[in-house]
Amino acid sequence: MNKKFWYQPDIATSVICWSFTFMILLLSILLWLEITVFQIWTAVVFIIFCVVVLIQIFFRWIEISDEKLIVHTIIPQNTKKFELASIENVRMARYGINITVKNQKYYFIMRKSSCEILYNLIDS
User: How confident is the model at residue 45 (pLDDT cuts 50, 70, 90)?
Assistant: First the structure.
């Protein structure tokens, strides 16, 4: 059983990451408005913004197998691997899931349907 769920990190981390991402968009808009004619730099910065958005959405996922819960992050060195037996507490929140492993709490923002499926897989 290998399941994959998309997630965003806790609220504080998400706000910081997405704020920097939208700064790239604002730079693109600023270049567009300052130069008044279409420049290649405006398109390049907007394409960089689109790539960063796709990276932030599709490079974060939680993978669950029979024995492990693997939390993939944008930077591969930060990937976290947890044994299912070491998970102490799992709690569904309104917009995500709280997981406690070795007295360390992790919160992941997820869709409600994915959250329920992950909760049932971990809890069983």
Answer: very high
Q: Map tokens 């599709």 to a residue.
A: 58
What is the 3-class SS of 76-107, one letter each residue? HHHCEEEEHHHEEEEEECCCEEEEEECCEEEE
Exposed/middle/buried for 87, CB within 10 Å: 0-12, 13-18, 19+?
Answer: middle
Cβ–Cβ < 8 Å for 10, 107: yes
Structural contact between residues 61 and 70, judged by C-beta atoms closer than 8 angstroms = no
Who contacts 2 (Cβ-Cβ below 8 Å, separation ≥6)? 63, 64, 65
Cβ neighbours, 10 Å, residue 23: 11
* Distance in angstroms (rounded) separating the CA atoms of residues 123 and 91: 9
Residues 74-124 pLDDT 10s: 999 999 999 999 999 999 988 899 999 999 999 999 999 999 999 999 887
